Fold:
Amino acid sequence: MGIKEIRQMCKMSQKEFSKYFGIPFRTVQEWEQDRRKPPDYIPKLLKRIWKLECRQCVHCSSEMICKNGCSSSGNCTYPKCSYYEK
Structure:
């Protein structure tokens, strides 16, 4: 699975993905456009991190995924959820 497929699995834009994982935006663009190739361990690591940190949001539809879950106050940390708190 490539970087673009992982990003799409996370349902994030390139900008959201780069900010979430702390990867420069330009690097994500270059990886997705095959101008540069990430080290082999990077896609595996990103996928593992995402799977460890995500779970279904109690406020979102079933397609939406929270990053780090929702707080007990009901504020979601997933930007595309209507309960998202900045």
